[in-house]
Amino acid sequence: MAQPLVKKDDDRDDEMDYSPFMGIEKGAVLQEARVFNDPQLDPRRCSQVITKLLYLLNQGETFTKIEATEVFFAVTKLFQSKDVGLRRMVYLMIKELSPSADEVIIVTSSLMKDMNSRTDMYRANAIRVLCRITDGTLLTQIERYLKQAIVDKNPVVASAALVSGIHLLQTNPEIVKRWSNEVQEAVQSRAALVQFHALGLLHQIRQNDRLAVSKLVTSLTRGTVRSPLAQCLLIRYTSQVIRESGMNNQTGERPFYDYLEGCLRHKAEMVIFEAARAITELSGVTSRELNPAITVLQLFLSSSKPVLRFAAVRTLNKVAMTHPTAVTNCNIDMESLISDQNRSIATLAITTLLKTGNESSVDRLMKQITNFMSDIADEFKIVVVEAIRSLCLKFPLKYRSLMNFLSNILREEGGFDYKKAIVDSIVILIRDIPDAKESGLLHLCEFIEDCEFTYLSTQILHFLGNEGPKTSDPSKYIRYIYNRVILENATVRAAAVSTLAKFGAMVDSLKPRIFILLKRCLFDNDDEVRDRATLYLNTLGGDGSVVETEGEVKEFLFGSFDVPLSNMETSLKNYIQDPSEESFDINSVPKEVKSQPLAEKKAPGKKPTGLGAPPSAPASAADAYEKLLLSIPEFATFGKLFKSSAPVELTEAETEYAVNVVKHIFDNHVVLQYNCTNTIPEQLLENVIVVVDASDAEEFAEIASKPLRSLPYDSPGQIFVAFEKPGGVPAVGKFSNVLRFIVKEVDPSTGEAEEDGVEDEYQLEDLEVVAADYMLKVGVSNFKNAWESMGSDFERLEEYGLGPRDSLTEAVNAVISLLGMQPCEGTEVVATNSRSHTCLLSGVFIGNVKVLVRLSFGIDAQKEVAMKLVVRSEDESVCVAIHEIVASG
Amino acid sequence: AVSTGEDRSLEMETCPLVKNILLLDSEGKRVAVKYCSDDWPTNSAKEAFEKAIFNKTQKTNARTEAEVTMFENYIAVYKFVQDLHFYVTGGEDENELILASALQGFFDAVGLLLRGNVDKKEALENLDLILLCLDEIVDGGIILETDANVIAGKVASNSIDAGAPLSEQTIGQALATAREHLTRSLLK
Lengths: 889, 188
Prior knowledge:
The complex is a heterodimer of chains A (889) and B (188).
Chain A: H1 2-17, H2 26-32, H3 43-58, H4 65-76, H5 84-97, H6 101-115, H7 120-133, H8 136-150, H9 155-171, H10 173-176, H11 180-187, H12 192-206, H13 210-222, H14 228-245, H15 257-263, H16 269-280, H17 287-301, H18 306-322, H19 324-327, H20 331-336, H21 343-356, H22 362-373, H23 378-394, H24 399-411, H25 416-432, H26 437-449, H27 454-467, H28 475-487, H29 490-506, H30 511-521, H31 527-539, H32 551-558, H33 565-577, H34 598-602, H35 617-630, E1 643-644, E2 648-649, E3 657-665, E4 669-678, E5 683-696, E6 701-706, E7 708-711, E8 717-724, E9 733-747, E10 752-753, E11 758-763, E12 767-769, E13 775-777, H36 783-790, E14 796-804, H37 808-819, E15 822-823, E16 836-845, E17 849-859, E18 864-873, H38 876-888
Antiparallel strand pairs in A: 1-3, 2-3, 3-4, 4-8, 5-7, 5-9, 6-8, 9-10, 9-11, 9-12, 13-16, 14-18, 15-16, 16-17, 17-18
Chain B: H1 8-13, E1 20-25, E2 30-35, H2 43-57, E3 67-71, E4 74-81, E5 84-91, H3 96-113, H4 120-125, H5 127-137, E6 138-139, E7 142-143, H6 148-156, H7 168-187
Antiparallel strand pairs in B: 1-2, 1-5, 3-4, 4-5, 6-7
Helix pairs in contact in B: 3-5, 3-6, 3-7, 5-6
């Protein structure tokens, strides 16, 4: 009995696999295409052959030039047939073949005949084909017919002409613009799609004429646009007009807002959504404007259609970034979406909730997310991990539950990218939230006990070596590290040996025991592991005596490498190519940092975060700057570097010379580091200096300048100019800069420069040293505690009127950036409709003085903003200085 | 005439654009596809996109309602029936409901044209109708028509039996057959 059943299944499988194109072969089909040349055409057979040809093309097969030409000529013969179906396939085939200009001429007359045919389908399709394959010269010949077609009674013909017009406008704008009158007539068409296509074309014709677009929108928003698609277009154009016209200042009303709001009651969902989205994207949208849009989006959240739910949650997710409070009404609907079948929707819902959540809802939310995480793909999990990381930075007091969550998911299954995202997040939390450090490090230790990714294990070991010795009880990490030496592959073992050595060097009490462990590593079967162990034992004094390791040795073993690796590589390559008796001298390697090559600079990538930029990105950038400055004898006496600013661009993008500047602040000095790049291959610049005019910076006196001997193409270099300034005072001022140099022509083929150069100069933008340059952004995890423990001894309170402002947010941001301090506990975000706001800031002022600031803002109906500033610090003069910054800002 | 990714902001201010329409089988192989964007310049780029979108969506249930996903920098809406997977892709800022209306138009028009017998075998046997159908839905990325009856009507009036175009009534009948077929297959 079983046998026939199986047989039957087999039959079914055969049937399922059956395809009319089975075994199809290009050569054979091209042979078959000869039927196109038969004197007696068989339309059915010809259609079948065309379908086969189209099937081949659709499957990715390509025809050679000769094959394509042959097929094309054969197909043109088929215009003789009167068969409507065949003609339709001919049209398709010609479009697919995209014939060359001289081939187009062959079919032009046939297609023009069809354009004037009495059959609507012929007219519509011939227009689409002809416009697709034609060039400008032919267009003038058929223009008359196209204009007629635009106002054709048949909507299909009109649409064909209008859509073709939209495409042709890209290549032949001057011709298409002449059709304005006809297009305008078509906008009034009763046929929905004609109206849509006509509106699209009319707008494109007029898009560079703001006034015309504004008139178009004004008249259409009053009238009735029938087609939902056309209505969506009109909403987009309206948003554009609103963007360009700005708020009507007399009444405070936004022009056309009523129209957008009316569209929220349209019967087509696509229109409602388009309008809701347009409202959420209005610049400076108020909560009153936002509310109706949020309400319809909220209704969509519980729709039975996944696309509607997705559209709504995606939009609300975006709104939550700027107006978190406006979205909180949707939280209940949002929470039920966590279990949505569509995981894209669920993930968007989760991340929205994470953005709108307040401190008290964190724990509940984490519980829900835990269940959710087990059944989504890694790519979604990464999004959630990133959202949790920013939540944790926003509410540092909640680090315990968020850190626990991260460590739990770290233990579960997951791919490399997901695990890396979690580890990166833990590293960032350890770095930014001091209280989270010890528990975070232990979580990472537990993770490497069972980690399948060598990269992550070595990175964590390295991080552990930097951070672990500084903790209260470094000994508890040793077990985890030594386990790596016993259990892992050679790469991880070598990393673990280095980490052990760091603990040994930094923590004297652990040293004897570490040496015992390192001695065991001398018997490892891997060269690198043995070599490292030997090196560390010899340099750290592994003879068993407990001596404090000398600073020089520590610096040699663990200090950051002060030579840029790319420079090191180049120097070593040169050394190998040109061997000499002398040994390689590391001091011969240039220390000047070669900033990113041009190509990368144009496309600014994501900032490396977490382990991607170990050991700690901000600190190491500062370290690198400090090293660089100390290596310049003129600056060696300036003392400790307090702060280096982010680079400020002094040239427009894509100019001949690209220059940015980094401001290095010392107690009594300011060093300006100009990073210069020459972007002209035909030029070599020599003796490059920056002439700085400090006449608008009275308190600054130039004391040293370090020019750049030569600046070849695409090889960045630095120029330094140092100023003296009064100590401890946040001196401010404006500097104007001119780049002066000798330019020499370079022959790009040989790369050789001419002997003689010409002196030239290049104006750079001005640069300002501002009060914020003297402030380090340093956050505190618990502002209230920090505030109270600082005490009110030197507290200073002052009230300020900030004048009329666009919004409270704008005022808050202005004060934050003026002071250059770190906002704490997410207080930089102003609730949408609130009329008052309190913002907490923390920082370290020059002289290493901790500063805490409490700002209270209020805004009245005239948008006048008042601010109360309370500052506490360990130094009264700093409190005074903070008020001076605000008073003079 | 097809716009490239560079002028995305312009796209948003102009027409809603469809980047591609795909009809794949239950193993992710092509039945018929139409690309209206330079985002995928080679056939291998197209195949890679199809493979990726198929893998991402194959386990979802898109049989009663159209589903949607974010994918690379695209929004894709999709619907499955029997061994056929229908997709419409647009840019990440596109109004997904507009894409969904194009998908529904395509899906229902194919149902009408295949008289309710919507599966891979039938689709391949009537590939000319499917290709014409794609041609009637978009032109260079711009939506031509989303009403399934109109799309199917335009395709059918061109079919080989030109003497007997589908009348409105027969289209209605075909739709009824399609619905009946769908219900029956759901009840199985």
